[in-house]
Amino acid sequence: MRHRKAARKLGRNTSHRRGMLRNMITSLLKHEQLETTDAKAKELKRAAEKVITLAKRGDLHARRRALAYVQEKAVTHRLFEELKDRYTDRQGGYVRIIKKGVRKGDSAPVSIVQLLPGEEKKKTKREKADTKGKPKAKKEEPKKTEKKSQPIKEGTTRGKGKKAAPGTKETQE
Question: What pLDDT does residue 61 have?
Answer without folding.
Answer: 97
